[in-house]
Amino acid sequence: MKHRLLFVCTGNICRSPLAHRVFEHIAKEHKAEEHFSVASAGTHSWHQGEEADPRMRKTSTDHGIPFSHLSRALKESDFDFYSYLFAMDHGHLAIMKSLNKERAQVYLFRNFDPEGNGNVPDPYYGGAEGFEEVYDIVYRTCKNIFDTFEKNNFEFL
CATH assignment of 3-151? Predict the structure, then answer.
């Protein structure tokens, strides 16, 4: 059985597509990609159909994880399809909980960050250092989520 994971941010051009690709990369490195189906979405459709932010793609590529991604908006049917949904900040979490109606497991992404919790900062309006910070947060949090699955024989919580 594949676990279906969905990472969610605002426009699906920075944080959530990065988490999507980083998690896939980690699963592939551990030869465990057959256990997962991973995607990402945005709570707002402002960037729907657009490529992920070039600064985020460059940062990820600089860390050995190149990716291409077209933004999409979160749909109510996502709560029926995906088993685990991860919100990048408290605002996304509130929106997701209002749509969920107890169909899926919805979490604040950084609740799995071994170095702290809270929101993943939005790097969109900042410089390169913000994208690096987000990469670091996303990588260690995705690694911890993966490790949680792995140590529980590919079950979650």
Answer: 3.40.50.2300
Confidence (pTM): 0.96
Q: Which residue reads 């410089």 in tokens?
A: 127
Residue pLDDT, tens place only, 46-83: 889 899 999 999 999 999 999 999 999 999 999 999 99
Write out the catalytic residue numbers.
9, 15, 122
pLDDT in tens, 10-38: 999 999 999 999 999 999 999 999 999 99
Domain ranges of the chain: 3-151
